[in-house]
Amino acid sequence: MSMSVSPRRMKKFRDIVWRHYHEHGRALPWRNTKDPYRIVASEIMLQQTQVERVLEKYPIFVRRFPSWKRLARATPAQALAAWQGLGYNRRALALKRIAETVVRKYKGKLPKDPALLEEFPGIGSATAGSICAFAFNIPVPFIETNIRRAYIHFFFPKKRTVGDDDILPLVKRTVDTHNPREWFWALMDYGSMLGRREKENPNRRSSQYHKQSKFRGSDRQLRGNILTLLIREGMLSHQAIAKKLNEPRARVRKIILSLAKEKFIHVHEGKVNIVR
Questions:
Q1: What is the per-residue pLDDT for 211?
Q2: Average pLDDT, stretch 15-35?
Q3: Among 66, 140, 153, 183, who pairs with 132 as Cys (CB 3.0-4.6 Å)?
Q4: Entry pTM
Q5: Beta carbons of 245 and 252 less than 8 angstroms apart
Q6: Active site residues
Q7: What is the rounded CA–CA span in Å between residue 152 and residue 113?
């Protein structure tokens, strides 16, 4: 897109977003803190997970592990047990490794540099930007699902394919440099509203759009079921896992090998357990 968007149109967009936020802004628990630990925990949880589910699990997790130090000291099994219900379990281990790095390398203080944040497991450019904004009120432009939807809806109403490289210059030009924390909250709330209201999700016109594969019956669901079973019952054989989950042994074995390779579980003499 040409960067010839007028200042007047930029102002109109900002006014619409702020007006919606002031009238309908969401009260979310991770918005009531500036604690970098709690903000990072919420941002990792919100990756690929609906806000409603995170609202249920976030307070439980941060009560169980209220600080970098407490999470760093936890075993992988304990972190995974507290994470159950959020899905994409590798995020739990990534968050634990982030905590270990903050405690060991940064003496308990999360760095404010987005380039350094991107070196942490589970943190890409978008999450690094959101952490800078929400934990430190630093105006680092970033794009996530709701932000993308807001810009596509307003600035690209007729364009069939919109790339993030089209959107990012607009994010940079519209960011509130004095109050980036609330500005990005406002953008997310406006984009979330559009997702519920629009007949056709504007993000379907994004070059980043991928239709999510069916979860029920998928390998992803079976991975989660195996981890949940091991957390609940402890060490089990391949055969016992297959029987309890009513799944073919060959399929269970394939998933177990994958989980072991990713260091979720330990396999020894035909028995399987969560890594301790």
A1: 67
A2: 97
A3: 140
A4: 0.87
A5: yes
A6: 43
A7: 28
